Amino acid sequence: MHRIVCASVGLLLAGLAPLASVGAPLTTNVPPKIGSPVTLVQDRDQPGHGWWEREDRGDDARQRYWQLRRNNLTRYNQLQAEIYQLQQQRAQIDARINADIAEQHRMLGY
């Protein structure tokens, strides 16, 4: 009986792992060692940096995220997936606009 319960819990956790990763930040940052001359600079507007990072609420928001009830967690992850998709579309549109402007510049000899 104990084996069945352990196996069931393991399968449940394995099934929830993909859902949990959707709402988590897409990048991880490793701070430099103490005394290291390296300075980390982040572009907070790049895709993959969510509002947690932009508003400097990473730790608090991460804790609150893991305390969400299942239905709110599911909805949060759906919203995050939609935001990511829209950011990808925005990046594609920006790239097309920049390419068109570059072509206009070439046509006018600039």
Features:
4 helices; 66% helix; 110 residues; mainly alpha
Summarize the structure.
Helices cover 66% and strands 0% of the residues. With 110 residues, it is an all-alpha fold.
What does this structure look like?
The chain is mainly alpha-helical and 110 residues long. Helices cover 66% and strands 0% of the residues. The longest helix is centred in the last third of the chain and has 38 residues. It is elongated, with a radius of gyration of 21 Å. About 6% of the residues have low confidence.
Per-chain topology:
Layout (H helix, E strand, L loop, with lengths): L1 H22 L27 H4 L3 H9 L3 H38 L3
Helix pairs in contact: 1-4
